[in-house]
Design brief:
This protein has helices spanning 2-29, 45-73, 78-90, 94-115, 125-166, 171-186, 191-204, 210-232, 239-253, 261-266, 268-288, 312-333; strands spanning 292-293, 309-310. By secondary structure, it is mostly helical.
Length: 339
């Protein structure tokens, strides 16, 4: 979770800069603006925005690995984790290799910190020189000689399979979208939610956009459904909850799933299943409609950026459909309040 928290600003900034680059390119160059990454557009304002976003994307994998290690071993783990994650990305192991490198670096440095004993006058050298040096060397060599190739093969197989699903509308793709959608609503900002989001954002770097579309749409659905349910089924909610539902609606539009947490915490056995069902419907429909999202955040506001969303109208339909399903389920599952 620490690694994801530090990674997210890079992902959000990078994704939105890429989307803005496409937006400016579409205004300046028309339909040809979709090729903003080509050398012909190098140096233009739109291209500079695009490549700034790409630079932020290149950083997020090392940051992910570095701060996973930091969460385990403190500051001495940052360099081994970042270097290991960077090597993982260079040899094709991607974000899976980065996660593994972060855990390897963290536990290795924590072990070395307990094992290595130095005289008191040399103790200050340990966190500044010895632990980063040994940790970085060992993790780097492990990535090159032991871990990198198997994880790289796994990542290549996963990417190849997802590429086959990108334009497919079969049952497997439909099921994957529903799974990602349900994960987004299960703990609303917790580890399961973050796992789905992290995988989807990482796949943008491999030009696989449909998981991100399913994930963001499904993450918007729970708070939007809460808002609608507090309006349509007032006798299921207290006055305070109906007021809080308005705020949840705004958060839902902004892709902040956590807006539904207070309602889920108060009545988890009824609220969480209702929200998971609707989010799964949204994710599945998003994939079935062939939607893709080129930016990893932004909520409803991304819909107005040209070329940021593939099949934008159908994408909106998927969000509305899932919201409607969760709203109805909340009305069915929630008990009426006694007078």
């Amino acid at each position: 979770m620490t690694g994801v928290s530090y990674m997210l600003p890079f992902v959000v900034a990078g994704g939105l800069l890429i989307a803005l680059g496409f937006a400016f390119a579409s205004f300046q160059f028309g339909e040809k603006g979709i090729f903003i990454y080509e050398d012909a557009y190098k140096g233009t304002f739109a291209a500079n925005l695009f490549w700034a976003g790409k630079a932020a994307f290149e950083l997020f994998i090392p940051v992910l690995g570095g701060y996973i290690a930091y969460s385990i071993a403190g500051r001495p783990g940052i360099a081994p984790g970042m270097v290991g994650a960077l090597i993982a990305n260079q040899i094709g192991a991607g974000f899976l290799g980065a996660i593994l490198a972060g855990f390897m670096a963290g536990y290795l440095v924590a072990f070395l910190a307990k094992t290595i004993k130095l005289p008191r006058e040399l103790e200050s050298l340990k966190p500044m020189i010895i632990l980063p040096l040994l940790g970085t060397a060992i993790v780097a060599l492990m990535m090159y000689y032991v871990v990198g190739k198997p994880v790289g093969s796994l990542m290549a197989a996963l990417t190849a399979w997802l590429e086959t699903q990108q334009n497919a509308k079969g049952f497997a793709a439909f099921l994957l979208g529903g799974l990602l959608g349900g994960m987004m609503a299960l703990d609303m900002g917790g580890p399961v939610n973050k796992a789905a989001y992290t995988v989807s954002t990482a796949l943008i770097g491999s030009n696989i956009f449909f998981p991100m579309a399913a994930t963001m749409a499904a993450g918007m659905t729970p708070p939007l459904a809460i808002f609608c349910a507090t309006l349509l089924f007032k006798n299921r909610f207290t006055v305070e909850e109906r007021e809080a539902g308005k705020a949840a609606g705004i958060l839902g539009l902004s892709f902040i799933t956590e807006g539904a947490i207070p309602f889920a915490a108060k009545d988890p056995l009824r609220v969480i299943p209702a929200l998971v069902i609707g989010s799964a419907v949204t994710g599945a429909l998003s994939v079935a409609f062939g939607c893709g999202l080129h930016a990893p955040h932004g909520g409803v506001f991304v819909l107005f950026i040209p070329n940021a969303v593939d099949h934008v109208l159908l994408y909106a339909v998927a969000i509305l459909a899932g919201t409607a399903v969760s709203t109805v389920c909340l009305g069915l599952f929630k008990k009426r309040l006694t007078a």
